[in-house]
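FAQ: What does a ligand-bound record look like?

Like this one, built around iron/sulfur cluster:
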Amino acid sequence: MEQNKQDKLDRLREEVLACTACQLHKTRTNVVFGEGSPDAKLMFIGEAPGYWEDQQGRPFVGSAGKVLDKLLASIGLSRSEVYIANVLKCRPPKNREPRPEEIKACTPFLDRQMAIIRPRMICTLGNYSTSYVLGKFGIKAGSMSSVHGRVYRCSSLLLGEVLVIPTYHPATVLYKPYMMDTIKKDWEVIESVYKSL
Ligand code: SF4
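The answer part, i.e. the structure of the complex:
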């Protein structure tokens, strides 16, 4: 592991833990910075912490996290080999949707996380991360049904060349179980692109 990357992430984490830049700091239990390998080739970006994430200070540890773990296992990967983060680092009360001013306040942290890790692939989980990440590369994301499973070849000075693959948030299958087949097909794309890196 590149120690430099870990050091940079540790310093950034300290900064985020003390953040009061938006109203969500008032209601959070814990900041959910993100976790995984600083050398990950594949980074997953979700929306925001939910109840269990807020309780534990870790990303994707509730029901949606169990779905994510299964999907990761289905392509032969574990959490320790990838990096998992969210657009927002603090839980919106009652899991309401992120507000534009919260996204604006928080995403500089995500930008810095991505710039430190410099993944070769980013898998966006759900609408918010998809529109934020593709938007960074000047791509206006359409609906999830039109962008999921597609591979976007992107590049920027900050991140270099990166492949962005949007897919549905794992929580989708909790209220729409029939979506699992669609999501699995997206993950087959993720697996094949990952293996080609
Ligand atoms: Fe700071 Fe982000 Fe938490 Fe808002 S959500 S307080 S910007 S860390």
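Follow-up question: can I read anything off the structure? Yes, for example: The mean pLDDT is 97.
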